[in-house]
Specification:
alpha+beta; Alpha-Beta Plaits
Length: about 575
C-alpha cells in the first residue's frame, strides 16, 4: 500500500481514538466519534464552529489546514493554551489529540472567548492571512485561476503577455492529486530553481467534479503538459523524452551528469531527473482540433477532421519564404545569421525571434527570409515595394521528422503532413501490431498505467499476449494557431482527459514582451499609458476581453473603468454621509 494511504489511515485512527475519549468530557456520546463525517459535525459543535465548515474540511488543498486549525481549537477547548501546546496541536494534532485525551487532568472548558481579549497585531495578521489563503485556494482550485501566456504557440489568437482567467468549472474542476503543497505556486518553490513545492508522498486519485460541458472541437483549452510526467530539472522547459531521443538512449534516470549540447560546442549536465504528478506538470494552452473518436489528418498544413476540411482560424500563423530586393527585414551576420530590422518587424507585429535568412543570391541582391506571420501581416508584407514573392513553407508528405509523433521512421509523419490518426476514445478497442503500437504505447503505459512488453512480433499487456487494446479514457489532439512554430500534439501525442485543466474565459491585461517586440515592447510602463497599442507596451484592445473560439471579444475596459469609478464614488459618498450623521 502507498505510504500516503498508510499515513492517512493511521492519522484518522489516532484522531478517532482521541475524539472517542474527549467527546464525553464535552457532553457528547463517545460512539459518535466512529461515524464518518458525522463525527466532524459533532467535533465542530464541541469547538463551537459553524456547521458549514464541513465543506472546507472536505475541500482538497485546504482540508489539511482546516483540520490543523480544528486540532488547535480542540486543544484550547480542553484548557491546553500555552504556546507550546498550540504549536504541537496545530502541527501534530493526530498525535497530540489522543495524548491529551488520555491525560487524567484533561477537562472541557469550552472554546476560548476571544471577544474579551484585545487581539494582538500578530493575531490579526495571522487570521487575515489564513482567511485569504483559504478563500484564494478554494477559488483557484474549483472556480477560476489566473494564468499568463508564456509562449507564442497560439499567436495571434492568444498572445505572449496575455494575462487571463481560466475557468475550472467549464469542464469540471479536478481534485488536486497533491493537496499538500505550498500555496499559490505550481511545482517549484519561489526563489529556487529545482526545489519541489509539494509533498509527493501523499496523493489523491483522479476525480473531476461535474462541469458545464466537455471539451469540443475548436475550444481553446488549458491542460497539463503530457510530456511533463518526467523532467530533467536543469532543462525543465524541454521535453525529457526528446532529450533522450536526441541522446539516442531510452532513459536518463540516475544519470544527472549526462551532458547535452545547449549551444555550438557548449555542453551542460541535465541534472536530476524526476517524475511529476499530473497536477504539477506545466500548464499549456492550445486549441483542441480533434476530440475522442475523430479521424485527424493534416495535409500540407491544412487540417481535416473525419475527411472534412476545417477552416483555419483567422489569426493563425504560418512560415513563409519571402524574397526581397536587398536586406529588407534584416542584415546578414555570419555569427547570428540575421540582425533583424526591429522597427519594420515591430510595425507589422512580427516577432524578432521568428525570422531567419534562408538563402542569399550570389551577388546578395536577392534575399530569401523565412518569416512566421499571420495572413493579415502577409497581406501587408506582399505589397511592400522591395518584396518579390511570398510562399508558404511546406514540408512534403513522406519526409520523416524525428521530433514528430510517433517518432519512428516506419510512420514518416511531419509537421505539415500528419496522419490519418483516429483519436483514442474511452471504451473503444483498437487492433495492435508491432508497427502501430508506437501510436499507443505511451497511452497504455504512462496514462493508463499498464505494463507493456514486445517480444519479437508479439505484444504483452500486463503479462498477457494480446492483439487489441480497449482505452479507459478519452483523449484530445491539441494544436497551436501558430501552426509551424508550436510544440503540440504533433510532437508529444494526444492529451488524456485527466490532464484537462480548464478553459480561458477572460483576458484582463496584455503586455508586449521586449524580447519579441524590442521597439514598442521596451517603452516604459508609465509612458505606455499615453501611447496607443502600436507605439507602447500595452495592447489596449486586448484589455478586459472575453475569450471565444474565434478569438477575443471587443475590449470592455471602458465599461470596467466606469463600474470601478461608480463603486468608488458610491462608497465615498456613503461614508461621507455616515460621518455627517455621527456628527449630528
Amino acid at each position: 500500500m502507498d505510504i500516503s494511504y498508510i499515513f492517512l489511515i493511521l492519522a484518522s485512527l489516532t484522531t478517532i481514538i482521541g475524539l472517542w475519549k474527549l467527546f464525553p468530557l464535552a457532553g457528547q456520546d463517545s460512539w459518535k466519534a466512529f461515524v464518518p463525517l458525522y463525527n466532524f459535525f459533532v467535533w465542530l459543535k464541541v469547538i463551537k464552529k459553524p456547521w458549514w465548515w464541513i465543506f472546507l474540511i472536505i475541500t482538497p488543498g485546504i482540508n489539511f489546514l482546516m483540520v490543523a486549525i480544528m486540532y488547535l481549537l480542540t486543544a484550547k477547548a480542553f484548557n491546553k493554551r500555552t504556546n507550546q501546546d498550540k504549536a504541537v496541536a496545530f502541527l501534530f494534532g493526530y498525535v497530540y489529540l489522543p495524548y491529551v485525551a488520555f491525560q487524567k487532568d484533561t477537562a472541557y472548558v469550552g472554546p476560548e472567548d476571544m471577544s474579551k481579549r484585545k487581539p494582538s497585531m500578530a493575531r490579526e495578521w495571522t487570521e487575515a492571512i489564513v482567511f485569504a489563503v483559504i478563500a484564494a485556494t478554494v477559488i483557484r482550485t474549483f472556480f477560476f485561476e489566473a494564468f499568463t501566456i508564456p509562449t507564442s504557440s497560439l499567436e495571434k489568437s492568444m498572445m505572449v503577455g496575455d494575462y487571463l482567467f481560466v475557468s475550472k468549472v467549464s469542464y469540471g474542476a479536478k481534485i488536486p492529486n497533491t493537496p499538500l503543497s505550498f500555496p499559490f505556486v505550481h511545482h517549484t518553490l519561489p526563489g529556487t530553481a529545482t526545489t519541489k513545492s509539494y509533498l509527493g508522498w501523499f496523493k489523491l486519485p483522479y476525480f473531476r467534479l461535474p462541469g458545464f460541458g466537455s471539451v469540443k472541437n475548436n475550444d481553446i483549452v488549458v491542460f497539463n503538459y503530457p510530456d511533463g510526467d518526467t523532467v530533467a530539472l536543469n532543462y525543465q522547459n524541454q521535453s525529457y523524452y526528446q532529450i533522450c531521443r536526441d541522446a539516442k538512449v531510452s532513459s536518463l534516470y540516475n544519470k544527472p551528469n549526462t551532458r547535452i549540447e545547449v549551444a555550438r560546442g557548449i555542453f551542460q549536465p541535465i541534472g536530476e531527473v524526476v517524475a511529476r504528478p499530473v497536477d504539477k506538470r506545466e500548464n499549456y494552452v492550445k486549441r483542441c482540433v480533434a476530440i475522442a473518436g475523430d479521424k485527424l489528418e493534416i495535409k500540407d498544413a491544412e487540417i481535416y477532421i473525419n475527411d472534412k476540411h476545417i477552416a483555419t482560424p483567422e489569426h493563425a500563423q504560418f512560415h513563409y519564404f519571402v524574397k526581397t530586393k536587398g536586406y529588407l527585414f534584416g542584415d546578414y551576420d555570419p555569427e547570428r545569421n540575421i540582425i533583424p530590422n526591429e522597427r519594420l518587424l515591430d510595425k507589422y507585429d512580427i516577432y524578432v525571434d521568428e525570422i531567419h535568412i534562408s538563402d542569399i543570391s550570389a551577388n546578395q541582391d536577392t534575399i530569401e527570409y523565412s518569416i512566421n506571420m499571420p495572413l493579415s501581416s502577409l497581406a501587408k508584407v506582399k505589397v511592400l515595394s522591395n518584396v518579390i514573392s511570398a510562399e508558404k513553407e511546406i514540408t512534403p508528405k513522406g519526409v520523416y521528422e524525428s521530433k514528430i509523433f510517433p517518432h519512428t521512421s516506419s510512420i514518416p509523419w511531419n509537421n505539415d503532413n500528419f496522419g490519418p490518426f483516429v483519436i483514442p476514445q474511452a471504451n473503444t478497442t483498437v487492433n495492435l501490431d508491432t508497427t502501430n503500437i508506437k501510436l499507443y504505447d505511451k497511452i497504455i503505459v504512462n496514462y493508463e498505467l499498464n505494463k507493456l512488453e514486445i517480444k519479437g512480433d508479439k505484444i504483452f499487456i500486463n503479462g498477457a499476449e494480446t492483439k487489441t487494446y480497449t482505452f479507459k479514457m478519452d483523449y484530445y489532439f491539441m494544436m497551436g494557431d501558430n501552426r509551424q512554430n508550436s510544440a503540440d500534439s504533433r510532437y508529444w501525442g494526444v492529451v488524456p482527459n485527466d490532464h484537462i485543466v480548464g478553459k480561458p474565459v477572460f483576458v484582463w491585461m496584455s503586455i508586449k514582451d521586449p524580447l519579441k517586440n524590442p521597439v514598442s515592447g521596451s517603452v516604459g510602463l508609465f509612458k505606455s499609458f499615453f501611447e496607443d497599442s502600436k507605439k507602447g507596451r500595452f495592447r489596449w484592445e486586448r484589455f478586459f476581453c472575453f475569450v471565444s473560439e474565434d478569438g477575443l471579444s471587443k475590449s470592455y475596459r471602458v465599461h470596467f473603468l466606469v463600474i470601478i469609478l461608480g463603486i468608488t464614488g458610491f462608497v465615498y459618498f456613503r461614508n461621507k454621509r455616515a460621518a455627517k450623521k455621527v456628527k449630528k
